[in-house]
Amino acid sequence: MSLENKLTSLIVKHMELGEKLSGGGLGGKEFVTVSKEYSALSPIVEKINEYRSARQSMEELQALAADASDKAMQAMAEEELHEVKHRLPTLEQDIKISLLPKDEADEKNAILEIRAGTGGDEAALFAGDLLEMYQRYADRQGWKFEILEASSADVGGFKEVSAAVTGRNVFQRLKYESGVHRVQRVPATETQGRIHTSAATVAVLPEAEDVDIQINDKDLRIDIFRSSGPGGQSVNTTDSAVRITHIPTGVTVSMQDEKSQHKNRAKALRVLKSRLYDHERAQKDAVRAATRKSQIGTGDRSERIRTYNFPQGRVTDHRVNLTLYKIDAIIKGGEIDELIERLTAEDQAERLTAEL
User: Fold this and answer.
1) Cα–Cα nearest to 254, from 283, 278, 231, 225
2) pLDDT by residue (tens digit) across 207-253?
3) CA 318/CA 233 separation, integer angstroms
4) Closest Cα to residue 146, out of 167, 169, 174, 116?
5) Measured between alpha carbons, how far apart are the two ends of the chain, in Å?
6) Strands 179-185 and 304-309
7) Residue 203, SS3?
8) Average pLDDT, the chain
9) What Å distances lie between residue 70 and 58, 67, 279, CA to CA?
10) Which of 152, 154, 261, 267 is most enclosed, with most CB atoms within 10 A?
11) Could you give the CA distance from residue 108 to residue 99 in angstroms, rounded to a whole number?
12) pLDDT band at 109 (very low <50, low <70, confident <90, very high)
């Protein structure tokens, strides 16, 4: 189907959905489904109408510009024609992006997991810095940020920490953050002023809902044990910590931050479902990624995606070769929108190329 025919069919479908909504007679569930589809199409239809209006204006202006009898009108038409011609490719590109297949997880909340990697104490401190960066970013977006589980390091920071991020289009904004983040700086304990390199791994999982993943109770092994703190000492007098293992996949989640066994179990199941959902998505994405040159957005945990160089004050994202010299604003202020927008645009461009 040509692009023009596809645009026409979308407009017709939008009109039909609007008539259904205004005509009444839809049941509760059907009304919600139709409303959601109508709302999803509305911004695309607006762009199509704007694009077609611009094309019509271009044709009218071309006719005026070709009329040599009125020099003043001709000059005005040529000036406006230049502006419209400049705007049309952008409008067409926006429409094509709107027509790309949507990631079903984009509107979901996310489970954020950060683990200290190579670098010892400095890696744990860096994991804490990353957690602060994402907390600040969540605050800027108006999202809720809830720590689910944290294993603190003796020197500060975290060996590993997980959080639930709740709000509008959370996964869509954060999904490109998955991978290995590397830091280069002089540790506070370094007396010779030498720069050390450390790393932390970030995993962003779409939070699964019951409809996304079905887990049979017989597939779960649940172990209850006593919570422990740094060094292994007991921090709880009751057996409230929970470890849940999904037997078919071997995926294991432990929770011990809450004093209530029930709350720890609920948190563990929440993370387990998201990890299993992410595993299913990864298998599907592997097939899709095989047809693409790049793997932006696949969430490969082993890929080094970004370097934070403190001596030079720069942050470099290696996937898109983008370097920003505002490391404090990024780490302490959570100003990562520019990175996210660039990664999103690059991914869209590659997907458009694949569609052609």
Assistant:
1) 225
2) 988 777 888 889 889 888 877 654 444 444 557 889 999 998 889 99
3) 42
4) 167
5) 12
6) parallel
7) strand
8) 86
9) 18, 7, 67
10) 267
11) 20
12) very high
Structure tokens at 275: 């990890």
Report how far apart, in Å, the C-alpha atoms of 26 and of each of 15, 21, 31, 35, 78 are: 16, 7, 5, 10, 51
Contacts of 155 (CB under 8 A, 6+ apart): 121, 124, 125
Tokens at 197, concatenated: 């390199």
Q: Which residue has the tokens 């060094």?
A: 231
Q: Is the pLDDT of residue 267 over 80?
A: yes
Q: What is the dihedral of CA 181, 187, 192, 195, to 10 degrees?
A: 10
Segment 51-74 shows an average pLDDT of: 85
> Which ranges of 142-241 does DSSP label H, i.e. alpha helix?
170-174
Q: What's the confidence (pLDDT) of residue 235? A: 47
Distance CA 113, CA 299 (A): 12
Q: Which of 12-21, 294-303, 342-351 is the least confident region?
A: 294-303
**Percentages of the chain per state (helix, strand, coil), in multiples of 5:** 50, 20, 30
Are the beta carbons of 51 and 88 closer than 8 angstroms?
A: yes
Bridge partners (DSSP) listed for residue 68: none
Per-residue pLDDT reduced to its tens digit, 6-17: 889 999 999 989
